[in-house]
Design brief:
It contains one helix and six strands. By secondary structure, the chain is mostly beta strands. The protein has one domain: Thrombin, subunit H, CATH 2.40.10.220. Strand 4 and strand 5 form a beta hairpin.
Length: about 120
């Protein structure tokens, strides 16, 4: 069996606060093993609200923007600086919200970059 290296990827997301209607851009990070065909778990700079709709912007390995819905967002503390010196103190789970077939097809390409051994069908 081959060892697979889990990549660390940084992106940004756009979130609109449903109470104030203000838009904010927030940095996030994820590890490729936290990506599934329907969800992703990310580390964020700030907490997000459950059921909040966001736009995730990826630039690696493909440039892509996809909508998602926040499932949960909680404070996350790590006691060893194994991830990086950058602060991403919140762990957040996002469920993808595909609105167009083209988005879905691009996501399948994106997903296969991390899981080439899986026949991705969503």
């Amino acid at each position: 069996m081959t060892n697979r290296h889990f990549e660390r990827i940084t992106g940004s997301l756009k979130a609109i606060n449903p109470l104030t209607k203000t838009q904010k851009t927030i940095s996030f990070r994820f590890f490729s093993n936290d990506l599934s065909a329907r969800k992703i778990r990310i580390f964020t700079e700030e907490p997000l609200l459950k059921n909040q709709i966001i736009e995730l912007n990826f630039s690696y390995p493909l440039e892509m923007t996809i909508k998602g819905k926040i499932i949960w967002s909680n404070r996350f503390e790590i006691h060893r600086p194994i991830y990086s010196a950058l602060q991403f103190p919140y762990r957040t789970e996002v469920e993808f919200q595909f609105t167009k077939e083209a988005e879905l097809n691009l996501f399948i390409e994106f997903f296969k970059k991390f899981r080439p051994y899986i026949n991705a069908t969503i």
